[in-house]
Amino acid sequence: MGKLELKFVQEAFETNWIAPVGPHVNAFEAEFCQTVGSSYAAALSSGTARRTTNHFGLNMTVLILQTHPALDMTEEQFFQFCQINPNYRIERNAQGELLVMSPTGSETGHHNAKLTQQLGNWSDEDGTGIDFDSSAGFKLPNGAERSPDASWVKLEKWQAIPPQQRQRFAPLCPDFVVELRSPSDNLQPLQEKMEEYIQNGAALGWLIDRKNRRVYIYRPQTPVECWQSPETLQGDPLLPGFVLQLAKIW
Prior knowledge:
It comes from Dactylococcopsis salina (strain PCC 8305) (Myxobactron salinum). By secondary structure, the protein is an alpha+beta fold.
């Protein structure tokens, strides 16, 4: 497969390399046409693309690419695909679909930084695990490749991963995950993603909905809890002593 790159290429849609759902193609979707040479273009010719519903009328979106089975990007090819497109957050679900997300707004990025800062400060003092920001990718047991907004992995689990694999998308599910809902995010896909984390080995997950000031708490074999406007979240017993101050997140 040739070099993968994302460009503003309206012709890719016009020639049905990727066929968007809907009557028009916006600039974000046009940007995510893959132009990788004739062999890859031919593989994409039977693919489809669709966008998730945007309830907020904003220009940010998630483009879901369903590619031809002949494409079948390997783990290494997918990793390189993400590396040469660092301005975008790219995931792959268990069905092999590529989920290409537009960059978050500046305000969401600020709140995400406050989230990872608090987790990182606690993790440095605790020393029993490794913390990660939203740029880290993980290959879950079900085959999905995800990048939670913040996450934490027990030290013994992390050390069991060969150093070479740590340089790619580590084959594990974090023990603790956080997803921060931005104004353009639909709630249901995030809830489904949180369930996926739990089903694949996460022991604790927080879905923070800033718009509605709600937090959804996920644990294995436990009904999801929904808290309205909490001031803090406590990570005990998995994260002993970790308290997330939500005043810096709301």
